[in-house]
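Convert to structure. Protein one:
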Amino acid sequence: MDWTEIIIEVNSSDIETAGNIAQMTVPYGIYIEDYSNLEQEVLEIANIDLIDEELLHKDRTKGRIHIYISPEDNPAEALSFIKERLTAENIPYEINSDSCDVESCLENWKKYFQPTNIGKKLLIRPIWRDDYDPQGRIVLNLEPGLAFGTGTHETTRLCLEALEKYVSQGDTVLDVGCGSGILSVAALLLGAGSATGIDIDELAVKSSVQNAQLNHVEDRYTGIHGNLAEKAKGRYDIITANIVADAIIMLSGDIEKFMDENTIYIMSGIIDTRLDDVLSALPPSIVVTEQFEDKGWICLAAKKKSQ
């Protein structure tokens, strides 16, 4: 069945809020066109100052959000939700939607996925892009596909920055809701000794294994299809959960059994309005040690309280 492409156009000043609303509809298949800082971004990513003439003629006052939705995720409901939330935020907008086959949607989406610097050490590179300069960064090669995030959204980027800070050589990592495996692969590239990704979506596990292979870390990566409480075993040095607030709340009852006294538990995908709900759901034995925030999205680092 065909996917649906939704294109939302808003003023550049509203792009962050509109992007957050779009991210609530589906956690994947989203790209934001924002040319308001074109020259600076191209210089940072590609280390060049020669910009395609077509890009230079883009309207800097407007931003466009592309969302690609599978038939199973109810495109009509997503469209209704987006309109309702944009109106509630008093954001002027134009929306167009059309059906497209998977291949066409994928090709459209690929056009906008750029090599992206993350934190101080990482560069995420879509495997079809060769026009980048790593500038000494660790390159994470990624083939996410439409069904998974690209790593450039605030929720994943904050997680990656937290991993950069907390991962030590030889660490064991558990990635809950692994998706494309981007967090597991990043942890391994940053020096972790082994990583286990678990997801209830069989396609996600397959994708994560493929991305581990792309980055030559497959010998240290294990993908598990199933539920965390039923499938995962042991304790880990680092646990990541880049999902949504409700899922993190559901995890709170089981997560302790995978933690020892020094485990760092990194939670992301939390919109600021749900922060208190997440904090209230954490077991009394777990304390938040650090909070990262960007554009209304929050990532938490936590560990067990000292005895």
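Protein two, convert as well:
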Amino acid sequence: MDRAGTETLLRPARPRFAVGAVIAVAAVAAVTLLGYPIRAVAPTLSLAVVYLLAVILVAAVCGRALGIAAAVASALAFNFFHVTPTGTFTIADGENWVALAIFFVTAVAIGTLADLARSRTIDAEQRRREADLAAVLARELLGATDVDAALPPAAAHVAEAVGVPSATIVLHEARGDAHHVAFTLDAGAQRRPATLLLPGPLPDEARARIAERLVPPLEAVLRSALDRQTLQREVVETRALRRSDELKTAILRAVSHDLRSPLTSIITSADALASPVLRDDERDELVTAIGQDARRLTRLVDQLLDLSRLQAGAAEPRPDWVAVPELLTGALQAINARDGEFRVSADPETPLVQLDAGQLERALANVLENARQHSGGHEVSVRARAVGSRVVIRVVDRGAGIPATELERIFEAFYRRRDDRTGGSGLGLAVARGFIEANGGRIFAESLPGQGTSLVIELPLPVRVEESAR
């Protein structure tokens, strides 16, 4: 809304009385002077039409009172300067009396109609601007996700419309004082009243107009915005609860299957160890099975705990300088990698990275374990080297590959592909992504069905290392 037109929203813009009187006198004088050349080519009585133009102008610009005054002045000037005998207010001809009377009545009527038309025009313009203001307020408040943050710009539009330096909208009840006028806003039955504060004092007419024309639409928009915000919060909470229920269900499924399977195996093997007829080789085999299942169970519990910490935001990294080959060696040891399962190639020029070694080692262990499970018995290739401002670790298996639609989903907690027969928990890659991103890196998958999968890890290099490498 433009500033020049907003002042008519609450106060019709008319000139002051003294200015209007000067305009009326000037208009009558100008028409009187114009009458002399016109009288030379047209009947004297036709000059009344020219005087009517002055009356219409004054009434439209300055209002009805000055329009009537201009009609009286026009009648007097017409009589004095142009009706015979001129130079006197005496009228010799009775027809001129009738003509002058008709002129006067017509001038007063036209002045009144012109003022009425002006008032209607002003009222229509005011209502249009009020509608524009309501639309602006609706856009500001209904389009905002946070109503509190949208209140200052909405109040600025109100101040511009009212023609005051500033305005404030608060979502609580406030009282006016010597410097502020308070307008109470109904924010809804379930809320405390809001308040519109304007600089004061304001004339009674302006206060009444604001209360009648501006406050109701502002109340309606504010109530709608607050109701919308409440509904949005309820939707978010409902989604969060639904997501929480889904997560709990997934965890229960993981607990019921992935935890129970190794526990059942351990219990069965332990019971078998008590048999007196057990041979030594059978006993060794059962002990090995118990150790494997116990380690599997430990990894699953660790992954559940890591995921819980990541989702709670409690996995704050403790960065320190570490070599990438050391991280790979620790990760391979953590998963008890055997000869022939992995082929590791790390560029000896790879700089040190600054991150939480424990978190990255667990992340790498999960990635390597995932690649081993899906390699189809083939050797997994692991390569690490510096590329620009980051260190890139690429873990490539020769398994069945992953469809493009699932390349992102494999990093979701508890997600398992339907054709996955490895028996994994669906937690390893989710935990890996959480730890890698917590340390400023990223991980993504590249794959073509039937041609294996590459899991790519990018770790940032500190600025000091980047500058020294240049």
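Residues 337 and 369 are 9 Å apart (CA to CA). Residues 250-311 form one domain.
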